[in-house]
Amino acid sequence: MNPLEAVAIFAAGVGAGGINAVVGSGTLITFPTLLALGVPPVTANVSNNIGLVPGSIAGAYGYRRELAGQRSRLLRLAAASLTGAVIGAALLLGLPDEAFRVIVPVLIAIALILVVAQPKVNAWLAARREKTHPHGGPWLWLGILAAGVYGGYFGAAQGIILIALLGIFLDEDLQRNNAAKNVLSALVNGVAALLFIAIWLTGGAEISWLAVLLIALGSAAGGLLGAAIGRRLPPAALRAVIVLVGLTAIVNLVRG
């Protein structure tokens, strides 16, 4: 890897960390960059996942004020994310990529529709329920589990799906849901990364550690920057960013 390629990967890491903190889909910056530089697809996916973990943690830290009072809820939902992440990471190493290439754009499109419709859906649900479940109830838990499977497998737009789910089932503002999304995304990425490293130690996976280091440094800086910007966006602007990033993700995945 020459210096110019190293700079390109680091810059992609900064962009991915920033987008992940605000919305999600940062993988769609770093993953194609690694592919363009000749890194094999599975190796690129695994290396990218590990490298983005510091960015996810930085993004969650940047939203620490919005996390106040959500500890009990996040502990409950974390079990779903952790379980899903293990399943998703196992699928990545055991199944061909073609299986999700058709499904992923559809999932992102559904998530975008839910994000846009969230205020009306919440009002409709509020009129038909006596009390909002503080943890979102069993359907949210199952949805977070499914998002964890998806995130452990690929991860792009995991944040969009999480925001949609949290927005539908919780009576919280978008910024607090975004903070919770960052924590759950960090858990999924972290658990998947640990599993990938364990498999690498046994010779069952290839990892480009230089790429991991460059993405990790870039994503950590980008995560803090993205959180600083995202916390100041009004709900309407944040939804607009989510939709824009999500549509870009769909176009890139379909073209790929």
Quickly count the domains. Answer: 1
Query: What's the number of extended β-strand segments?
Result: 0
Mean pLDDT: 82
* Rg over CA atoms: 17 Å
In sequence order, what are the helices and strands, one letter per element? HHHHHHHHHH
Describe this structure in words.
- It is a single chain.
- With 256 residues, this protein is mainly α.
- The chain has one domain.
- It is built from 10 helices and no strands.
- The chain has helices at 3-22, 27-36, 41-62, 71-94, 98-126, 137-153, 158-169, 174-201, 209-230, 235-255.
- Helix 1 (3-22) runs parallel beside helix 9 (209-230).
Summarize the entry for a quick read.
This protein has 256 residues and is mainly alpha-helical. It has helices spanning 3-22, 27-36, 41-62, 71-94, 98-126, 137-153, 158-169, 174-201, 209-230, 235-255.
Structural key phrases:
256 residues, single chain, 10 helices, mainly alpha, globular
Write the layout of secondary structure elements.
Elements: H1 3-22, H2 27-36, H3 41-62, H4 71-94, H5 98-126, H6 137-153, H7 158-169, H8 174-201, H9 209-230, H10 235-255
Helix pairs in contact: 1-2, 1-3, 1-9, 2-3, 3-8, 3-9, 4-6, 4-8, 5-7, 5-10, 6-7, 6-8, 7-8
